[in-house]
Model the fold of this input.
Amino acid sequence: MDKIARIDMGAPGGPKVTVGGLGEYAGLGGRAMTSLVVAAEVHPLAHPLGAENKLVIAPGMLSGTTGSMTGRLSVGCKSPLTGTIKESNAGGQAAQVLARLGYAAVILEGKPEGDDLYKIIINKDGIQVIVDNSLKLLDNYPLVEKLRAEYGDKVAYMSIGSAGERKLLAASIACTDPELRPTRHCGRGGVGAVMGAKRVKAIIIDDAGMKMRPPKDPDKYRDANRKFVEGLRKHPVTGEGLPAYGTNVLTNVLNEAGGYPSYNFKDGQFAGSNNLSGETQAALEIQRGGLATHGCHRGCVIQCSGVYNDKDGHYLTKQPEYETVWSHGGHCGIDDLDTVAHLDFLDDNIGVDTIEMGVTIGVAMDAGIIEFGDKAGAIRLVEEVQKGTPLGRVLGSGAAITGKVFGVERVPVVKDQALPAYDPRPIQGIGVTYATTTQGADHTAGYAIATNILKVGGDVDPLKPEGQVELSRNLQIATAAIDSTGMCLFIAFAIMDQPETFQALLDMLGSFHGITMTGDDVVALGKKVLSAERDFNTRAGFTKHHDRLPRFFYNEPVAPHNQVFSVPDEELDTLFNW
Amino acid sequence: MNNPHQDRLVLTMAASQISEFYQLLQRGVVVPCRVGCPLGELLTDQWGIAADYVTERVTTVFLDHRAIDDVSTAMVKGGATIALSGAMPGLVGATMRRGGYYAAMRGAMTHQQEGDESDNQEAWVRLKLFNLLLPELGPGFLRRGLRMDGTELADFLRSKPDGFWQGCSAIVWNGQTVDTDRLMLYNGLNGSSSVFLTVTCEDNP
Done:
């Protein structure tokens, strides 16, 4: 990965491609690349859908290699949903293929005049930008089918559905999985709207004729990767729980803990939770001839995904993840997996973030547009988004907009991004992350539970009750670093518990790049990324007053623990002190 | 614990059909035990779960919806709800882990023991099994038996496909073998407020 492609979509005479060296961005990947480019090159007060914004697409530091779990693709920009800097990442094949073509980043710049729609073809011969208005308003599944007829099955596709074209604030960017289904999404923050604003409908990435990226020390890299894979396979979470049940294994536990927000955060438990659980879902998938274990990209050994078939045994969607099952399920008072799976398919097809969409439907239910538990009504509302009706455009712009339009007081957002599936009142520490992350409410911003072994922030007493901010800070630093490697965040479980697996990861990074990598280097990278993001947000007008949860979390105790969020503002304000 | 007014149902199932009962176990079933003892003692001494297994596999434990760090000090009362889970993904999964590094993030969800309550009485508790523990511990609890509302059990059994019944080699209702007429069984269940269900696996009696 020794080059960066810049595609000026607004260049006089039509889009212009420039390929150059890495310059000051040498050695970066994933979130580090997207955030440092956006922080340095995008005016913080730019309109997110305007020509000044940039959409940065970056594989991780180890993507395109033979290393396992290296297939995350980061997309960054100024977010139209939050107004903050945004990094959103996904699995699928795109990162591996783009990296093998040698691109450390592809940056979409400018904005074309007129309403022509473009596709971008990236292969070993270079980059072409072609007008293709036949793709207009196609959703992701039919879009990819149409593109496959022309470009075949040995490529990776990135695309936006109708939501992205309409520049809806919940719009995602889809990446195809190994079966070329558009199921893996850079979902959060409206990155699909930015791609739509630049009039780019699809990116076809073809690595024919290219080889795996070679490590500087092949023997050491191979050995480190072997140990890394062994560590993942022997750990009960990455080797057993996630492969068997997927992330939805969390439903039962969160519900039992009273941290499962239901009915738009009015309750901490949901009576129908075991109808939605990962255990129930996996059994149903197997019974219907689908798959309970499936990887979202080649080289994944955790295989936390699956294939969800309908009652007749036909493919309906990929295995919905925990956050999706929650947002369209318990959050909306719906306890039917088939309904949730249908909604997941619609979200992927239209190209919207499943968390944002589900939370928005719950807010719409609170507004009385439909009743909680109305399965057909929930499907009908998402179909409104697909049709682009005025109501659909409101809903497709997310929970914050929908709450304002319909006068709802209880709107679970931070910086206008919907909260995910963990109630911050009983789980105060995650509330700290929701409030303070540079990305708007995002559980994955503080997900890398390997801070103890990374020694981020030194040794923290895990049972110290006042340590919520310190824990969240360390988690956010570790997460920013892992997001930069291109590694799936789920590796964190194994590296948290198994020092030899963490060492194997360091050895993979070190032997690939011909350097010696330590835990301190990883921490320094995480801090560098977060500092750049925080600085961008400050210049964009964000202050400590934006680092707060909605007031109802402070005022409304939630059952069964009857707690409110109680971490003092003054403590939240210290999170970025390092 | 004996209950003279309790109906009893014994099913003998093929091993391949035991997983059909996991929906009940994750929802929660009522099982007998002696309470007033530490949870760890209940798991190992009464329910026969190996101590090493509890340490290594039962990594997430809830008592009355509160996460447990130390099973040797958490006391079980009659009517308690006990949920057992294997290791969980995610930050919240790590947070809920017994004695885990991120336990501080739970706040008030952590179980706090109040008094020793060592009354050592026979009682019922509600047990829930999740994820990896379902196939590993589920058959043992089904074999030891659990109490259900008759109507709830009838609804559960009615929902089962033909394959389930093809894998059922014996149905014994209050000591009487039920042949092919399951209607009689359903009628009996619907009239019962309390059924003690035992499920044995014919491949592993």
About this structure: Residues 461-465 of chain A have pLDDT under 50 and may be disordered. Chain A touches chain B through 55 residues (CB under 8 Å). The CA atoms of residues 165 and 196 of chain A lie 5 Å apart.
